[in-house]
Amino acid sequence: CLISAMVSIYYNVIIMYSIYYMFVSFVSIDTTLPWQTCTNIWNTENCRIKPYPKLSELNERNKTMELIGLNDKSCLNKTVDDVNSLFGTSYTSYMEFNSTMLQSNVTKQCEIKFRTASEEFWTRQVLQLQETPDGLYDIGDVSIRNLICLLFAWIFIFFCLMKGVKSSGKVVYFTATFPYIVLLMLLIRGVTLEGYYDGILFYIIPKWEEISKPKVWGDAATQIFYSLGVAFGGLLTMASYNKFKNNTLRDALLVSLINCSTSVFAGFAIFSLLGHMAFITNRLVEEVADSGPGLAFVAYPEGIAKLAEPWPPIVAFLFFFMIFTLGLDSQFAMMETVISGLSDVFPYYLRKHKTLFTFVTCMIGFLLGIPQVCKGGIYVLTLMDWYSGSYNLMIVSLCELVAVCYVYGVNNFRRDIEMMLGGFPNVFWVYWYVTWCFITPVAIVFIVIMSGITYAPAYYTKYEGVYTFPDFAEGLGWLMVVSPLALIVGGMIVQSIRYGGVAKALKAQPDWGPALDENRIGRYSPRDEPDFSKDEPAGATNMGYMGEKGRPYVVNDKNGYDHRL
Predict the structure, then answer these.
(1) Any residues with CB less than 8 A from the CB of 313 and at least 6 apart, and which?
(2) Inter-CA distances, 488 with 136, 340, 406, 483, 509, Å
(3) Is 263 annotated as a binding residue?
(4) pLDDT tens digit at each of 565 positions of the chain
(5) Most CB atoms within 10 A, among 138, 156, 473, 523?
(6) 344 marked as part of a ligand binding site
(7) Binding site annotation covers 67?
(8) Are 3 and 392 in contact (CB under 8 A)?
(9) Is residue 168 a known part of a binding site?
(10) CB neighbours (10 Å) of residue 565?
(11) 553-554 and 563-564 beta bridge pairing
């Protein structure tokens, strides 16, 4: 619950960004999108929308003029002496350079680092980072427009959750399917832009030297945990509303397959657009591949801006509406986890007032999100994104594995599954036993340990360079990591005291089993002594004899048969 609560606070800020972009796209339907041009008040002279020239197709004179335009003039003037000493010339001005000199290592330092119009709209208009040069030491004033959008996001979440899964479940039918249409449109457009091929190659060709770095595996684990919702509690919360004999195996396989396939599919759409961005800014793909929310709010808008008129505003609105719906799916699950989790602990007070409690919870989330809508709020968001759901997710999942496989017992777990779904071939169980009991726990421990050994402080990449978070921010980040883990330790202590020791706290309680009596079969069959004060059923004798394993059955009915209950 705590992990989902922390992630929900900053996740709804990302939804807020999509709402703002959606509004901007809607009001621009009759004109052009603000990130289609470099003539806005927030743009700088380094903003560029023209494609990078194809130098190989130009003659010497045109190539030289293009290269001069791609370099800083004052910097080129300072390299005249170095060029003369390298090439044995006696030039007095950079205007005398040829294309070879302008592409040498001497003048490489003078290349202008261009930014796309979408990149400047994101950093200078939406985030307004130019007004907060001191990072977390001064996050600036609250952005009123972002604050209003954040309030709208939380109110929308409230109305979707006020009746629980009955309301949110209906909304998801649309929000889970609509994104595929928009992703397909973006992919088709992306592969028709210049430079897309470099982006696709960067996406599909692995860098084998990176495989040996533990951080890569840690990032991959965190990504799949986020993507599948493992250890967030959302899967448990939503599954608790299923029918007892729901085919959870089918659901697990389908969700995993569709989820990972969608990620791969979306990757092609993303990196085709990133390749185009790298092409028009004369930068490497890895230099324009921003991390965090900037990817969705820089790369995709850039591709949309390249559509033929009048499509950019329309497609932009649909795209950010898609981002909005995607965010809602995740936010529904996380907030329902928090609300249901607390309501189940205090049912008498909270379950009777579900609507009011949901509203209060959403408003608390709104208030805690206000620092992230300041002009330096992206630093707060990045800090929460970096720590609130990272190491703790893996450790919580490790605790789940240990609890199920080694405390409760993997064989008991197997019998529970077979009671609900029926039997499975032994090959399935061999695979599950190996992965649950050995491979997955060992992999998680390895990733956590190696990630700790190679740990690096959190940072945020921006145009001016990399901003590294100060020590006090690191302390707050690690507090977010250990807080959920402290609850596990606290829960162990409380339960041990409540039940008279650790050994007793690790044993199942007498009422453990399916919630409904109609589902309590097999080893969960009723074992209570019968009430002899009531009349016996017609034809039954010796009612209440306790058979093998303590299970009651009726002996010698009128037909002479034994009927186990």
Answers:
(1) 25, 26, 28, 29, 30, 31, 32, 33
(2) 31, 19, 17, 9, 19
(3) no
(4) 999 999 999 999 999 999 999 999 999 988 889 999 999 999 988 888 877 777 777 788 888 888 888 888 888 888 888 888 888 888 888 787 888 888 887 788 888 888 889 889 999 999 998 888 888 888 889 999 999 999 999 999 999 888 766 666 677 778 778 888 888 888 888 888 888 899 999 999 988 888 888 778 878 888 888 888 888 988 888 888 888 989 988 998 999 999 999 989 988 988 888 888 788 766 788 877 666 676 788 877 887 787 766 778 988 898 898 889 888 888 988 999 999 899 988 888 888 888 999 999 999 999 999 999 999 999 999 999 989 988 889 999 999 999 999 999 999 999 999 888 888 888 889 999 999 999 999 999 988 888 888 888 888 877 667 888 999 999 999 999 999 999 999 999 999 999 999 999 998 888 888 988 888 888 888 754 444 444 444 444 444 444 444 444 444 444 444 444 4
(5) 473
(6) no
(7) no
(8) yes
(9) no
(10) 10
(11) antiparallel
Q: Does 326 carry a binding-site annotation?
A: yes
Residue found under tokens 């796209």: 25
